[in-house]
Amino acid sequence: MVITSCASGGGKTDGPESSVGFAECAGKPNDCNGGKTKQGGTITYALGKDIKAWNTLSSAGNTVEYQHALFGVVPRAHHYYPDLSVQVNKDLLDSVEITSKDPMTVVYKIKKEAVWNDGTPVSAEDFIYTWQVQNSRDCPTCKAATTSGFKQANSVTGSDGGKTVTVVFSEPFPDWQAMFVPIYPGHIAKQHGSLADSFTWLEQNVPTYSAGPYKVEKYEPNFAVTLVRNEKWWGKPAPLDKVVFRIITKDSELVPAMRNREVNAIAPIPTPDLVTQVKQISEAHWYLGKSLSWEHFDLNLKNPFLADKALRQALFTAIDRKQIIAKTVGQYAPDTAPIGNHNFVPGMKAYQDLITKTGQGTGDVEKAKKILTDAGYKIENGKLITPKGETVPPLRMRHTTGNQLRKDSCELFANMVKPLGIEVQVVQTDDLGGTLTAGDFDVIIYAWVLTPLRIGGARQLWHSTSSSNYGKWVNTESDRLLDEAARTVGDDTKAHDLINRANDLMAQDAYVLPLFQRESFLSVSKQYTNLRPNPTNHGTVYNVGAWGLLDQAQ
């Protein structure tokens, strides 16, 4: 799962809203807006964040925007498609097969012609490096976004001249298809010191390497990342000469840029004004529907005041999620409702509402005050006093720069907890991954973008040892349940039950308050084809190598 910026949406209850170009996406999600392409041309795609980390295996680089900019550059063993299927990357691999269940063994066959753009073959060396920097054993100081699967893999070895990779697990791992998504070049890493040093180097330096249809031509900070065709690409040539990811961090600048043809495609978090304005652009298709992304408020338990469960429960009880929805996403998607789970969204078979029974998110200020007074707190002169007589200091609440929805949500949060004697200072960040990794927040709002593979993802987010557990919640019983779920192969019902039991513990502890399942919005100029909405974290760029200008002469 990654951080950000097939159900109902857009004010309807029977499917997504769209213009003619995306009209078939509900029934044919993998093929809609398809067409014959002509060679040449450039597309400019709006990217909502400037890139601060180039190693998307790292916790700092684990954002949707960073991954999307590099999707055509660094290879992946599997891709997540718009219909939520998980498919082998046939450009990279001839086959992937589970050859043994005890011990669990997965064998990858890399295409013989697959090479990095310096001519070095894509090989087991790349898989081994990618495993080593994420298994927490070979590089304990590497702050990997996830260790799921890599930690369970006991060995990764190469044969057949490095073109066959064999992964043997010490214990079963049900979400094994989420591994090696993506893969980084082991031979480049070796040139930059130890595992830890190379991991940092990859994070800090713009890629000159590529094993995809495109390579990075240039990066202009706070302006654009420009990709050009990779001349060493062995697959079907990309139709476009260039893909430019234009960095636009302010939502207010997106529609003018689209109208002026400064950008040809946008996929922002929608706002009422943005949706209304885009619908008026006659030269573009648009789509609005539910995504696998969910917004949430997180608390940092390293803050000694927020380490107290009663204070956390009171904060979340005072928050009125329905009011937040009504004043933000509900203005353009009125069917949006609060969600009650940290791992599954409505429509998924395993979804259970574990929040409603806690009373969190109801906006019940009097109940929140009672939670505090029962725990020994006092509200004096508009300030909250702890049982030890300390005044609870102002809380710093962070949101991403230029995101109006999140800014509004933070301001609503601040107003809702003010009657408890708690002051909230709203502070923006232009480096969400860095802010989360550093724990530079007391409260923060962001989104997790789910993958179709749900079992290992829960461990990635909420286990006490995971670097993606940014607020540092620790519960040994939850850890045990998540560990057991991550070992459960072939029995999804059991695994999902274990995850929900762990989730129930976290819900009671008031660590993260789920808000709502986010809308997915995409608008693309009508002259381009093969761009389509994808609710998974792989997004519209999952097939970036197929994007092109529509051949009107077909």
Walk me through the structure:
By secondary structure, this protein is α+β, with helices and mostly antiparallel strands. It is built from 14 helices and 23 strands. Strands 1, 2, 14, 15, 18, 19, 20 and 21 form an 8-stranded mixed β-sheet that branches. A 4-stranded mixed β-sheet has the order 4-13-12-11, with no helix packed on it. The two termini are 39 Å apart.
Computed Rg: 23 Å
DSSP strand tally: 23
Determine the fraction of residues in helical runs and give it as a percent range: 10-25%
| Secondary structure tally, helices | 14
Segments where pLDDT lies below 50 for 5+ residues?
5-14
Q: Tell me the strand percentage band.
A: 15-25%
Largest sheet: 8 strands, mixed
Characterize the overall form: globular
The N- to C-terminal Cα distance equals: 39 Å
Oligomeric category: single chain
Q: Report mean pLDDT, rounded to a whole number.
A: 93
SSE-based structural type? alpha+beta
Which key features would you list for this structure?
single chain; 554 residues; alpha+beta; eight-stranded mixed β-sheet; four-stranded mixed β-sheet; 23% strand; globular
Characterize this entry briefly.
The chain contains 14 helices and 23 strands.
Which secondary structure elements does this structure contain, and how are they paired or packed?
Elements: E1 2-3, E2 17-18, E3 37-38, E4 42-47, H1 64-69, E5 78-80, E6 86-88, E7 93-101, E8 104-110, H2 124-132, E9 153-159, E10 164-169, H3 186-190, H4 195-204, E11 214-220, E12 224-229, E13 242-247, H5 254-259, E14 265-266, H6 272-279, E15 284-299, H7 309-318, H8 321-327, H9 365-374, E16 378-380, E17 383-385, E18 395-400, H10 404-417, E19 424-429, H11 432-438, E20 443-449, H12 455-462, H13 476-486, H14 492-509, E21 512-525, E22 528-529, E23 548-550
Parallel strand pairs: 4-13, 18-19, 18-20
Antiparallel strand pairs: 1-20, 2-15, 3-23, 5-6, 7-8, 8-10, 9-10, 11-12, 12-13, 14-21, 15-20, 15-21, 16-17, 22-23
